[in-house]
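Example for tutorial group B:
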């Protein structure tokens, strides 16, 4: 919290900017090592460069090449009045306003779905929620031939790497995508329509594992649209599990 609330001020001040950027790099290296948050640290380290003078890339390249840095003088530096923006400038301004509008509206769309977005993840992406949930889960798919009634259990490891399986098992849209792929493969093999159901159990922020997907729903017939997903079960209620030390542990354990 202290870092988030003060680092921008130090980056804005020229005297502290280099030191603040070193802190930014160190902070995000630590978060990358400790937390599985993907590309986020690299994006933030790169984005923080906007606080530096716009000419720093040319100065850096010139220093590497041991050549004097040359910066093209602007119209304002030459004393001429700035020209009125043409149609390109107006288009650029309009595009910037649309971009800013989307950055405000997209994160708010999750409220249209209701429920716990950390659980159902509908509208989770681009919603300003960073490191607010820890989910662990397991998934198994059941395939049933609609004509013969024959059934198969399909582990995700037949399709995914270990990292992909870990991400898929807690995100409903990825579960649906894999279910569709499994359906296509088995229909191509059996030449019959098949049903695909999933047994998915997920733990959210230290809670006990609960079913995430309705195991009675044929996911092969479900579509991934913008509407609410009825096949996603409600989020578990109640606080996370708090483990308390046993009497022997408080006393120092066996042999204490």
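The residue assignment follows.
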């Amino acid at each position: 919290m202290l870092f988030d609330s003060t680092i921008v001020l130090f980056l804005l001040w020229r005297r502290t900017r280099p030191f603040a950027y070193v802190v930014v790099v160190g902070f995000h290296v630590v978060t990358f090592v400790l937390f599985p948050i993907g590309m986020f640290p690299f994006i933030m380290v790169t984005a923080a460069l906007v606080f530096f003078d716009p000419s720093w890339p040319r100065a850096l390249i010139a220093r590497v090449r041991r050549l004097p840095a040359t910066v093209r003088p602007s119209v304002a530096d030459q004393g001429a009045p700035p020209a009125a923006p043409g149609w390109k400038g107006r288009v650029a301004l309009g595009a910037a306003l649309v971009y800013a509008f989307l950055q405000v509206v997209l994160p708010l769309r999750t409220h249209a779905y209701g429920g716990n977005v950390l659980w159902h993840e509908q509208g989770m992406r681009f919603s300003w929620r960073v490191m607010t949930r820890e989910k662990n889960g397991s998934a198994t798919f059941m395939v049933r031939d609609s004509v013969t009634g024959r059934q198969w259990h399909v582990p995700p490891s037949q399709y995914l790497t270990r990292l992909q399986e870990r991400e898929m098992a807690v995100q409903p849209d990825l579960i649906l995508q894999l279910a569709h792929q499994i359906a296509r493969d088995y229909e191509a093999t059996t030449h019959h329509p098949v049903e695909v159901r999933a047994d998915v159990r997920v733990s959210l922020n230290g809670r006990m594992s609960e079913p995430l997907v309705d195991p009675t729903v044929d996911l092969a017939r479900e579509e991934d649209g913008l509407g609410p997903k009825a096949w996603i079960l409600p989020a578990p209620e109640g606080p996370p599990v708090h483990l308390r030390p046993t009497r022997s542990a408080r006393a120092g354990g066996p042999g204490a």
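Residues 117-221 form one domain. Compare this with the pattern of hydrophobic and polar residues in the output above.
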